[in-house]
Structures are given as structure tokens and as C-alpha cells.
Amino acid sequence: MAHLPKKNTYLLTFLFIVFSGTPVYAQVPQTAAEYNSRGLERQSKGDVEGAIRDFDGAISLNPNEPGLYYNRALAHEAKGDIKAAIVDYDKAIAVDPIFAAAFNNRGKVQRELGNMDAAIRDYTRAIEIDEQRLKTDPAAKDLTKDLAGAYLNRGIARHAKGDMDGSIADLNQALKINPTYADAFNQRGIAWHDKGNLEAAMADYTRAIDLEPKNAKAFINRGNIWNDRNAFDNAIADFNRALVIDPQDPFAYANRCVSLTKKKVFSDALTDCNKALAIDPGFAEAYVFRGDLRADTSDLDGAISDYSKAIEIKRRFVRAYLGRGLARADKGDRTGALADLDKAIEIDASYAEAYAARGLALLNYGRDVEAEKDLKRCIELDPSLKAAVEEVANDIRRRRKPITGEGGVLDPTTEKKDLYPADADAKKEIEDALKQAVSVKKRVMLIFGGNWCYDCHVLDRALHEGAAGKIVKESFLIVHVDIGEGDKNLDLTKLYRIPLDKGVPAVAILDGGGKLLYSSGEGEFEAARKMMKKELVGFLLRWEK
Description:
Strand content: under 5%
Radius of gyration: 31 Å
């Protein structure tokens, strides 16, 4: 199980702007400084609403003090009103264009909103300002700390954009400025881990722990390295240490669940995942881990339910689609399995494991040509998977039962039926077929062509004989759609996305509700006489109801 990257969010130490002068104890503030002082006190006690009212009062008396907008922005953040916080950071920067802390915190908020480019711009400006100020005051320790923090934050944002090299460069700079910066070591470890350099990641996590022995996240991240190395006892030891530090850390429970699942200690693994979800019911990764556990214990319905919940929380969660696709394949749900694996690849076209899973599924379904293409792509993306993928593929080839009639190309034909009568009303035939499809629980196959088309007759024969004919009889209703000389039923070719310039026969598959499930947009059936029987059978198996 690949590690779950931890988002080690770095929060700048809140810079509360306090005006000079003696403390003010009046119950009703009279000046901006008094309102600000009381606002800070209220926020420190958890009275965020009261703090915001006081900062409002301070700003009304002194609208040109950037620190007041900054403090109110922090209060808005504490309240969870991120948009209001950004407005106040904007105002602070408008009053003071070299307010580095405001740029840095606005960058943090932009990152939380997923606006990585905007976050990187803000962090970059904060870095520029602090570096310029350090030139005039090289001994300023607070500036050095802030500068290192800005590099860390920009490194995190670059990581989120997938720029691992840029992230590592920023973290290197943070560590050059502050060689004992545990958070920077931890974050750099995450970047190394995602680049596949486990040795460098392990070294950085260990250094973070040495610097901060109570850094629970560093223990969790190092535990994930042990998991990747299959050293599950070492991983569990690190997760245990994290839980001693923070008994309510859901990441520690979830990742320990992975270790225990790999060790086949399923009962304890389930307990850990349940604890993680009790602490954080919106923890999508924990649902995936529990789904993996259930799949490993043959509870496929439970696994599918967990993967579905993860997808509900994170709509583009590729790992959840992969897990659900595999579980559906194990249940024999070919259509659902391929739909999930297709979706995983659609979201992340560089996801090698998804190509492997889809390729192996296609191979198991007898769709060898498509399978080999996926397996080749998987190995191109991640050569380390080659041995494992080839082992499973060879096992599938040895075990699968040959499909009757799958050898050779489609049989030729000398008989030319009137497949496309000149007076046929294709629209009405489609409408009637859709009505019937609902009652008989079949799908509708539209075959576009003409009586003049030899390959149309070859395909028709194949769809009524042997293994393919059996599948068609059980699962499909066929409607032939006449294209004439390329000038007939053009509205239907457009509706069902059939490009006539790719040739005929062309095929579209509809469900009982008339939804287009498939159309042969690349001339897949145009040379039917050259099509392998096993390819046709594989195609039908994919789209059967």
C-alpha cells in the first residue's frame, strides 16, 4: 500500500500588532490602540466574534494602520471565514505593500483554498521583502525565522502542484537559513518519498524526529516508509509512538491499519480504521484503507461501500476508483469494474497501477489487444511493476478458459440479406427497441451501414453465430440504421456520434433509457472481415447488460 502523504501545514506564528504605550484598562475603549488591545485579549480567550467587533472599532478610528487589518484577518481565519480573511489581508497589503507577514498568511489561505499559483506568488513576494530587509539587518532573528517559514510554505505549495524538484529546492533553502527546522525536514521527507527516494525520505523524517522527539507527523511519515519497505513491525512501532504523542491522530490509526492489514491481523486493523473514522468521519483515505481490508477478507460489498464513501467525500479520488474497480471485478461486475478503472485513468493519465488493473481485467475478459496496450503503458510509466504485472498476466493466460469460437478472424459470407431495407424507419425501430429493452432487460445495439457494405454482412453473421451470437441473443436488441450512400439518417449519425468518414459498419450501444454508452468513433468495425472473433466477443462482454 502506497503511503498516504501528510499535509504538514506550516502556520506562521501569529503576529499580533500591538501599539506602544502602557496597558489600557478602561471598560469602554476610546482609541484604536485600546480596541486593538481588547480584541487581542478576546481572541486569546476564544471570543472571536468579540475580537472582530473590537478590530472593527479600531479600524474605524485608524483606517491607515495595516496591522489592524492583519489582526482582523487572523480573527476571520479563526472563525473559518476565509474569504473575509483574504479581504483583510488585501487591505493590509494595500496600506503597506511591503507587509511580508500579510503576504505570507494570505498565501497560506490561498493554499487552503487550492489556489496554488496565487499562494506561490504571495510566498514569493514575502520572500523578496524579507530578503531585502535582511540585507540591511542581517542579524534580525525574527526576519530569518519568517524567511525560512516562507520558503517552507512555498515548498508545500509547489509540492501540491506536483513540482517536487521545486519543492525540494525551497525546502533546501529553508534548511540553509534554519538548519534545525524540523518542519522543513519533515516536508522535504514527504517530497523525497513522493519522488520514490525512500532513503532520503527516511533520513529527513529521522532528522525531524531527532530535532522534535514529539513530532507525531514525522513518526507517521517514517512509518509509511517502513510500510513501503514491507517492514510492518517497524511501521507499527512508529505509529504507536505517534499515538503516544497524540492519541487522537486519525492518520496514525489509519496507517497502522494498513500495516496490520498487510500482516493479516484483520481484527485489529479494522479496529484502527474504525477509530480513525470515529475521530474524523470525513477522512476519505481511511475509508479506502478499510475498503482494502474488507476486500482482503472477501467482504466485497463492504469494500465497495467504503470506496464509494471515499469517492463521495473526494470526487476525484483515483485510489478509491482503483479499489472499487478491483472489488467490482472480483464480484464479476465487468461493466462497473471497467467504468471505475476508466475513471481512474481519466483523472490521472499517469497512474500506472490503474493501467495495470485495467489491462489485467481486460486480459481476463479475453480482450487481449486492449489488455496488452494497457499493460505496456503501465510498464512505461513504472518499470518497477513489470515483474509483478507479467507474473499475474501469465497466470491469467494459463487459467482462463478459452472462449468457444474465439479463434481466427470473423467468417466470410456469401449471403447478402436485406439488412437495411429502403423503406425502414430507423427512428421508429430505435424507439420500439428501447421500449422492449426495458422490459426484457437488454441493451440496444445500433449498426450503421448499408446493403452494399460487405463488412456489414460479415459483422451481422458473426453477431448471430457462435459465442458472439449467444451473447447477443441474451443481452442485446439489434437495430440496423441505413446510411444510404452516406446521405441517409445523418441526424442519427450525429446524435449517436458516428463519424461516417471512419467507415462502416459502425456501432453504437444504448441502455434502455436511450443513453449512449458507446460509439465506434475510430472505425473499429470498418474492416470487420479482419476482426478477430475473440475481440468481438470481448467487446460484447464489456457492454452486455
